[in-house]
Amino acid sequence: xxxxxxxxxxxxxxxxxxxxxxxxxxxxxxxxxxxxxxxxxxxxxxxxxxxxxxxxxxxxxxxxxxxxxxxxxxxxxxxxx
Length: 81
Hints:
The protein has 81 residues and is mainly alpha-helical.
């Protein structure tokens, strides 16, 4: 079984064309619920986290506010409940 690869915030920022401060802001606002941290507290991003960041950017482009994206994130985490 292959081990999942994790990316640093710098790698993710470069890959998506975002500032690292933007990614940190999203995390502080609770928009990145799946991001794990290393024992040293460093954010570790999976491919799924990168896809989620892309979706956040699309939601922003559609005109959604951060508060609306926060609500969406909560609803998404609840699943079909």
